Amino acid sequence: MNSRILGGLCAIVALGIDQSTKALVLNTPELERGVEILPFLNLVRVLNDGVSFGMLGGIIPWWGLIVLATAIMAWLLAWLWRAPDRLTAAALGMIIGGALGNVFDRLRYQAITDFLDFHFGSYHWPSFNLADVAIFCGVALLVWDGFRAPKDKPENRKEDHRKGNSSGG
Question: Could you confirm whether 132 is annotated as catalytic?
Fold first, then answer.
């Protein structure tokens, strides 16, 4: 499969999962007060007007965050267009899809719908959503790919094979 197509499919899947889960959350009145799912996980509807973990909430206007996110997504799309391999393309697609899901929220509600509340006792991790999970996973894949030895990357294995070298990887 073409890297660009894979990246686009990953973006569509991330966006679809994000938007469908947010629609469920927004249409479930019980989540206004929160529902315990596991001893360390609650589902609770939170509208976040900031960026990651609510930082900068109220400091940067919602439309400014849309402009910033759109500029970053344009840069990521250009990177995706030139992605050297499918791993990079999939990672970028996940980041783009997650970012787009959060931009849609900002356009509709001037805030992002968060609902996953992990906690240990009275200590709570800031609430987040599945767009954030897609972004995190995409970034983690890019970081992991950056640490891989060049000989382990697909484009270099093809090159070695053409030269008649067998690295066994």
Answer: yes
Long-range contacts of 109-113 (CB under 8 A, 24+ apart): 109/47, 110/49, 110/62, 111/47, 111/48, 111/49, 111/62, 112/47, 112/48, 112/49, 113/22, 113/25, 113/26, 113/45, 113/46, 113/47, 113/48
pLDDT digits (tens, 9 = 90+) for 101-115: 999 999 999 889 999
Task: Tell me the per-residue pLDDT of 126-148, one tens digit each, with 9 for 90 and over.
Answer: 899 999 999 999 999 999 998 88
By the 8 A CB rule, do 87 and 141 touch? yes
Catalytic residue from among 18, 105, 117, 132: 132
Residue 64 forms part of a structural domain? yes
Catalytic residue check, 160:
no
Answer whether 130's CB lies under 8 Å from 21's CB.
Answer: yes
Residue 134 placed within a domain: yes
Identify the active-site residue in 18, 49, 105, 114. Answer: 114
In a domain, 142, yes or no: yes
Q: CA-CA distance, 92 to 3, in Å (whole number)?
A: 10
